Structure formats: C-alpha cells, structure tokens
Amino acid sequence: MMNVRMTMPVVFFALGVSFLIAAFNLPKARLGDPNGPLYFPVIICSLLVILSVVYFFQEWKVRNKEIAEVKLIFSGRAPRLIGGSLVLIFIYTFLFERIGFLFSTIVFLGALLFLVNGKERWKTNIIVAIVFSFVSWYSFAELLQVSLP
C-alpha cells in the first residue's frame, strides 16, 4: 500500500519538473515583454512541484496507516462501476464522430445512468439522458455557435 501512496506525488513532481523545463524552452515574445509567454507556465509548474513535495511529505507521515477508502475501491459494486464506466467511455469516443454529439451523448449518458441507478429508475434515467444531452447540444450549437459533430 505504501508504494501506491508514494507514487502519485513522485509522478506529479516529475511532471512538474518536465513541464517547467519545457516552459523555459518556450520562444521569447517579439512584442511586449520578451518573457511574457514564460510567466504563467512557470508559475503553474512551480506550484505543481511545490505542492507535490508537500503531498509527498504528508503521505510519508502516514505511510504505514491503512486507508479504508482504498479498500472500498476494490470491494462491492465499485470494480463493476469503474470497469463499466471505462467501457462506456470507450464506446462513447467510438460513436461520437460516427453518429454525432447529440445521439452519442444520449446513448452514453443513458447507459451510464442505467449502470449506476439500475433498471428500477428507468424513467428517470431516460429523461435525464435526453434532457441533459439536448440542453447541452442546444447551449453549445445554438446559443454559443460552437460547431459540434
């Protein structure tokens, strides 16, 4: 369990350092402040590095304690929900370009709601899937004029 808990801070630290190095390799701006493109990425990457070090030491202090929440992920309905959600996301990405945003979102959200809520709440699942998908499509395609597939 300790290895899992200590892995994420190390990954975040490595990502922060990698992106920090990449940020310093950004080209200089030709207009205005030559370091203008550098400020925001360096601040974000520096925060990621600092916070990952803090996160590492917080996890180091409790490294030998057992976490009940981690055990819950591997018991009960959780593995089925996680696996089913991943399969549905894969299917959604496959359908998105082929049948468009509206219909693929209705299918994806409906299937996800049936997975989580079960067949007993079928009316609610269908209504939420259709209404949410339509409102999302209308908001982006009609109101914001964003082109959706």
Automatic annotation (TrEMBL):
Residues 9-149 form the DUF1468 domain. Signal peptide: none annotated. The keyword Transmembrane applies. The keyword Membrane applies. The chain crosses the membrane at residues 38-57, 78-95, 101-117, 124-141. Keywords: Membrane, Transmembrane, Transmembrane helix. Pfam families: TctB. This is Tripartite tricarboxylate transporter TctB family protein. It comes from Virgibacillus kekensis.
